[in-house]
Specification:
Distance between the termini: 54 Å
Number of domains: 1
CATH topology: Hypothetical protein af1432
CATH architecture: Orthogonal Bundle
CATH class: Mainly Alpha
Number of helices: 14
Helix content: 55-70%
Structural class: mainly alpha
Mean pLDDT: 91
């Protein structure tokens, strides 16, 4: 049987020097006996999956409301997709896949129902009571609101996973403020990966869902360079007469294009910026995990299209 110590030893041998190792964790707020055959981040992942807040993601949505059909993504299916993408990226970069998975599974736990409109409404209602910010609420969920253990409130997750919840960044997020986590320090690479996996996932599933719902058409998307160029590659590789399969292959190829660009650009930045340790990541003036300038611009135009034609529909 593979023990926790053997897992930790394997991480030390095999992971990149700038990966966050389980043995180097700052631990948990409430001390616990370590598990015999699971690392600290594997236990975090399992606790998140079995939490009430995680199950409730099934009925929360980003764009389409839950009753419109069983095809459209919910926050739960989105979270699973982000987790898959984040794990693939972490594995390819030789980072801590277990930590990336735990962060991905927790990244949306603080979201309200009714997407970003729900959050905006709650912010307004809570203006006189400290406001509302979903990353900080996610921390509240895992630290206080989940009640499963007799010895402490919350899930008692590791310091690194909780820090990553607070520092999660997407185009919709605002900087979270909390005294427990130094906002001036950059997030771990595993957390930066989840931020980008989140972006990749929602780009592509919002395209897929919107096409399925008839809000936009393939013809509409020909004005978007990233979509048009990706679909051209698909048509060069396959002879496809079924329109649904063409759309599915375009989305699939687009995900691969974004992930590959992210990997190549991030590896280049790690080398060029001389990143050797976790401390280097923390002290760097900017985020290391990033798309190339060319793809970043193409993604910006795609997201502008989605905002105008889908999110404001």
């Amino acid at each position: 049987m593979l023990t926790r110590q053997e897992i930790n030893d394997r991480e030390e041998r095999e992971l990149a020097p700038y990966a966050m190792k389980s043995k180097d964790s700052k631990g948990r707020k409430h001390p616990e006996e370590e598990h015999h055959y699971r690392s600290i981040y594997q236990r975090d992942r399992d606790r998140i999956i079995h939490s009430t807040a995680f199950r409730r993601l099934e009925y929360k949505t980003q764009v389409f409301v839950n009753h419109e059909g069983d095809y459209y993504r919910t926050r739960l299916t989105h979270t699973i997709e982000v987790s898959q993408i984040a794990r693939s990226i972490a594995r390819a970069l030789n980072l801590n896949e277990d930590l990336a998975e735990a962060i991905a599974l927790a990244h949306d736990l603080g979201h309200t129902p009714f997407g970003h409109s729900g959050e905006d409404a709650l912010k307004k209602l809570m203006e006189g009571h400290g406001g509302f910010e979903h990353n900080l609420h996610g921390l509240r969920v895992v630290d206080i609101l989940e009640q499963k253990y007799p010895d402490f409130p919350g899930l008692n997750l590791s310091w690194e996973v909780k820090e990553s919840i607070v520092k999660h960044i997407s185009p919709y997020d605002h900087t979270s403020t909390t005294t427990e986590y130094n906002i001036d320090e950059r997030p771990l690479l595993e957390a930066q990966i989840v931020d980008k996996a989140d972006s990749i996932a929602y780009d592509n599933h919002d395209l897929d869902d919107s096409l399925k719902a008839g809000i936009i058409t393939d013809e509409d998307l020909q004005s978007v360079d990233l979509w048009r160029e990706t679909q051209k590659k698909v048509k060069q590789k396959y002879v496809i007469n079924n329109h649904d399969i063409l759309i599915a292959q375009t989305v699939r190829t687009l995900i691969n294009t974004e992930v590959t660009d992210l990997l190549e650009n991030t590896l280049s930045r790690l080398r060029c910026e001389g990143i050797k340790t976790v401390k280097d990541v923390r002290k760097h003036p900017g985020l290391i995990v990033s798309f190339s300038p060319a793809l970043s611009e193409q993604k910006r135009k795609l997201q502008e299209f989605l905002f105008k034609n889908v999110y404001q529909h």
